[in-house]
């Protein structure tokens, strides 16, 4: 019962520039304990659980213009560079898989090393300038820094590719970390050398299951990959469409050009369900899995901070 309440209780308090939301208090006539998840208080006569949960309506009252502003900036950026939607989705994933969704990927190095230079991120992390633009725009319309950099990543990922499908579902209210974890990024981000059991186990470590792995892998129907990642396949594999590999070789030579970018498929800017037998079921799964990924260890309540500049922790 405790687990249910902890994971599902919606936040009732609304954030403001002066005070971010406090907590949900749940009383149970059957319980004998008072539990405060953040701060653990115990008492003998009530079950009281204090949770900070994510909610789609987190900014509705305090800054109704926040989400439309994020959407507008994303649309302009994608219009300018079609693959930008892919890059923003990729950022959200690489942020959430390293110690949870906390915007740590966006931080520059200080007393810690930035995650941006971790193995799976170096050169692969694109679109950071758009995140900074969104932050500037949102802080202006909200008249204060109330939207976390991490919520911006989550919203931008959604707006980039799947807004029509699960527009109202994305959960918000995350806060930003005060440090980054380069070494953790090296060990927790899935790598291209992993086989299926390893990928399943990698996702399991994040609390995600096989269905999430399959659904989220469809993120690769948009965006680019660097030549070094698929060179071996287009020159040596026998189970590959010849026309496709020929086209890829045009931008990925046998030697050199490691960082040349090539689209994953022929519709690089369109998130599609080409690889799914049942598109309707796929969209449902993808929406759910995106939310589950966005729920990985978020910072909420009084944890972390709302960064003023996504690249730096506040002084
Ligand atoms: C299952 C394990 C995964 C592996 C091994 C993997 C691997 C990769 C690799 C190697 C690239 C190319 C990066 C580059 O060359 O710069 C890439 C790009 C990308 N990945 Fe994944 N990925 C995985 C899961 C995911 C998930 C869960 C998502 C999101 C739902 C995702 C979304 C993307 C997107 C959108 C791009 C294109 C980025 C861009 O064009 O800027 N990937 N991935």
UniProtKB/TrEMBL annotation:
Positions that bind Ca(2+) 1: 95, 98, 100, 102, 104, 115
Q: Which SUPFAM superfamilies match?
A: Heme-dependent peroxidases
Source domain of life? Eukaryota
Subcellular location(s): the record lists: Secreted
Q: Which reaction does it catalyse?
A: 2 a phenolic donor + H2O2 = 2 a phenolic radical donor + 2 H2O
Q: How does the cofactor attach, per the note?
A: Binds 1 heme b (iron(II)-protoporphyrin IX) group per subunit.
Enzyme class (EC, first level): oxidoreductase
Look up the EC number in the record and give it.
Answer: 1.11.1.7
Report the SS bond pairs.
63-142, 96-101, 149-310, 227-252
List ligand-binding residues for Ca(2+) 2: 221, 265, 272
Q: Which cofactor does it need?
A: heme b; Ca(2+)
One molecular function GO term is: metal ion binding
Active site as annotated = 94 (proton acceptor)
Q: Which named protein is this?
A: Peroxidase
């Amino acid at each position: 019962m405790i687990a249910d309440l902890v994971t599902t209780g919606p936040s009732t308090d609304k954030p403001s520039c002066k005070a971010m939301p406090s907590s949900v208090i749940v009383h149970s006539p059957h319980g004998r304990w008072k539990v405060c998840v953040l701060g653990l208080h115990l008492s003998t006569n009530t079950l009281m659980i204090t949770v900070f949960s994510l909610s789609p309506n987190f900014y509705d009252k305090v800054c109704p213009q926040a989400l439309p502003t994020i959407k507008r900036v994303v649309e302009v950026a994608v219009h300018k560079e079609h693959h930008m939607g892919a890059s923003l989705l990729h950022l959200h994933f690489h942020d959430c898989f390293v110690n949870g969704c906390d915007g740590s990927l966006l931080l520059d190095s200080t007393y810690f090393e930035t995650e941006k230079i971790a193995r799976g991120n170096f050169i692969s992390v694109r679109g950071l300038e758009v995140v900074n633009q969104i932050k500037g725009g949102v802080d202006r319309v909200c008249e204060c820094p109330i939207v976390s950099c991490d919520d911006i990543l989550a919203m931008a990922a959604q707006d980039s590719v799947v807004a029509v499908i699960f527009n109202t579902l994305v959960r918000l209210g995350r806060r930003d970390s005060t440090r980054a974890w380069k070494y953790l990024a090296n060990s927790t981000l899935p790598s291209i050398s992993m086989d299926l059991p390893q990928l399943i186990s990698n996702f399991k470590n994040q609390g995600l299951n096989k269905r999430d792995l399959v659904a989220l892998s469809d993120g690769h129907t948009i965006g680019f990959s660097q030549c070094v990642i698929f060179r071996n396949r287009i020159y040596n594999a026998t189970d590959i469409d010849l026309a496709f590999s020929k086209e890829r070789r045009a931008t990925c030579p046998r030697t050199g050009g490691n960082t040349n970018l090539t689209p994953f498929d022929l519709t690089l800017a369109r998130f599609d369900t080409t690889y799914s037998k049942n598109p309707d079921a796929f969209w449902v799964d993808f929406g759910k899995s995106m939310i589950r990924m966005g729920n990985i260890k978020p910072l909420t309540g009084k944890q972390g901070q709302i960064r003023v500049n996504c690249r730096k922790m506040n002084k």
